[in-house]
Amino acid sequence: MKPPKVPDVHLDGAPARFWHPEGDGGRIRCDLCPRACLVAPGQRAFCFVRANQGGQMVLTTYGRASGFCVDPIEKKPLAHFHPGSAVLSFGTAGCNLGCKFCQNWDISKARDFDRLADVATAEEIALAAVRTGCRSVAFTYNDPTIFAEWAIDVAAACRAHGVKTVAVTAGYITASARPEFYAAIDAANVDLKGFTDGFYRSLCYAELQPVLETLEYLVKETRVWVEVTTLLIPGKNDSEAEIDAMVGWYVEHLGPEVPLHLTAFHPDYKLGDVPATPPSTLARARRQALAAGLRHVYTGNVSDPAGQSTYCAGCGALVIERDGYRLGAWHLRDGRCTACGRALAGHVDEPPGAWGARRMRVIV
Question: Which class in CATH covers the domain with range 65-306+357-362?
């Protein structure tokens, strides 16, 4: 199958979708994320990459990346989506949230587009994934919502070559834009950054409710494989009460089989005075989540093989052993637990991938 015809790289910006004109003077309203920026001619939206050029919205980072790397799929993190496989990862610049604790702030907060030195077409990215043996391409490092048009075009080229696509995202997208964007995506890891409106407003300059709506939409109305990550920040979103509220909502609205990753914060960006998350906090939060009924709860950014391995939701037997990004023992046959025969939720290949913890820079 030939890939669809998509735009070439545009260093001065490519025509964008998800907007409408509003009022006089050439102003336009962005319809892509709940921020709904009103952008005057010559100005940029909050994300800094969507701009008003002559009364038309353009995506200024179309076809441009901060770099391409082959990573383990577990790094996204995805534990139930082709375990052990390699994924071609890239991002652009900018973000539609303003998280004070951003751990990729040098990319997501970038205003100097000279750092976007890697230029590629959608077809070139898909072929690079095939050439490097990647099962999937991940839109990551910054939020793919803000470069939706390019992500959709890359996904179309990938599908034409049998390569899947992954969105690593905060889920901050409008109901009107969700269907077109997620129709292009095979798997998503969604950051649920906290579980109070106060946390989102004060630390992310955003709102919680649109993220919850995106999560429910993905799980209930699409075929996208979904996993969720929460970065636990000491004194900000790690209390027992907040974890209990979050996992209670999670079980009721997403179900017990959607994997949850609880990861450790390290001091960065504007929260340099906050201490790193102790492993004991992750262990306690994991116990709370399991007690609430979640069946697949993982810890991240710490050394914890027991908390990073996968266990059967039926009998509790170890089915995929992990130490960081490396796989060990494998007790699945045809995607089912060898002890009791229960199917593991997700997308599992056999034999499993063996990419390991390597990170390889790629010139597309």
Answer: alpha beta
